[in-house]
Amino acid sequence: MRCPYCSSNEDRVLESRAIRDGSVIRRRRECLKCGRRFNTREEIEGSILMVVKKDGRREAFDRQKVLRGLMTACEKRPVPAEALENIADEVERAAYGRGLREIHSRDIGEMVIEALKALDQVAYVRFASVYRNFQDIDQFKEIVETLSRSVREAQNNNRDSQNKKEVQEGRTDVA
Q1: DSSP structure string for the chain
Q2: Residue range 132-157: average pLDDT?
Q3: 15, 76, 130, 145 — which has fewest CB within 10 A?
């Protein structure tokens, strides 16, 4: 591996570990010439998955592009970087898991939107506004109202299931 600092081909591996469910190996290396350390990643070269854009263009799937979109949506939000890495991994796995040579960009966008909806509501609205190309305030209002309804429904479902559990356990405080 060529050192990114001095271009020497002489290095030693200090540490290796599997990441992304073992599909990638991260290696910590030290250049024997300049002594500086750097990281490399090794992954299996598979078939290239092509993304079909809205205008019909095709480009290779890029996990980093998905991750950049997630990071932009979550900027200044209390969302751990690991959570974004996990979402990017899930999207990549799902995209390749379809076993097709091509996937539409809208399918990738919908996977990201669903993951953000569960992770952070503000990031979800940010991403959706760009992805769905909102043109006016009414579109923002509509998505926020839809999100609010789904949050209320989830809270009601949680409350109902907790009440059922209490009834089953005989812990009701009904007077």
Answers
A1: ---TTT--S-EEEEEEEEETTTTEEEEEEEETTT--EEEEEEE---PPPEEE-TTS-EEE--HHHHHHHHHHHTTTSS--HHHHHHHHHHHHHHHHHT--SEEEHHHHHHHHHHHHHHH-HHHHHHHHHHHTT--SHHHHHHHHHHHHHHHHHHHHHHHHHHHHHHHHTT-----
A2: 83
A3: 76
